[in-house]
Amino acid sequence: AACRAVPDSEGQPVTAWRIVYPRDDEVARGLAQRLVALAGAGSSLRAAALDPAELAAALRDQTERAFVLAVQRESLAPCHDASAWPPGSSIQPLIDTRARAIVRRGSPPLTVDWDGTLRVLP
């Protein structure tokens, strides 16, 4: 939110009842389906897969109830990365990942990248 140069828009309320995700993202599909299941049997909420062009248009036009997307946990340029998000959007982490590793003695030498990714040294 600190990166936004323009105030949040107060556009029309979203009336769609879909949680959308990229068609080729199996993890996002599973998360979207779980969210729909948590909404209960009486809810008209549903999950829908979109191809890249449809997803880009839905993000741009803010036509859907929610989006399940992969976002980098850490970024070198967070304001630049967030500039493509619709005004008023927020992130709700759905998968909690820990930046920890348990390593035994005798394991190959490791290094940690800037984003927390473990790499095996040659």
3D structure, described in words:
The protein has helices spanning 26-39, 52-61, 78-82; strands at residues 18-22, 46-50, 66-67, 110-112, 118-120. Helices cover 24% and strands 15% of the residues. 7% of the residues are buried. The protein starts with 17 loop residues before the first strand and ends with a strand. It has 122 residues and is of the alpha/beta class. A three-stranded parallel β-sheet has the order 2-1-3.
What's a concise summary of this model?
By secondary structure, the protein is of the alpha/beta class. The chain is built from 3 helices and 5 strands; from the N terminus they run E-H-E-H-E-H-E-E.
Q: Report strand order across the widest sheet.
A: 2-1-3
Q: Which residues sit in consecutive blocks of at least 5 with pLDDT less than 50?
A: none
Specify Rg, calculated over alpha carbons: 18 Å
Q: Main β-sheet, in a few words?
A: 3 strands, parallel
Distance between the termini: 41 Å
Specify the helix fraction band: 10-25%
Number of helices: 3
By secondary-structure content and strand pairing, the structural class works out as alpha/beta
In one word, what is the shape? extended
Write the layout of secondary structure elements.
Layout: E1 18-22, H1 26-39, E2 46-50, H2 52-61, E3 66-67, H3 78-82, E4 110-112, E5 118-120
Parallel strand pairs: 1-2, 1-3
Antiparallel strand pairs: 4-5
What attributes characterize this protein structure?
extended; alpha/beta; two-stranded antiparallel ribbon; 5 strands; single chain; three-stranded parallel beta sheet; 122 residues
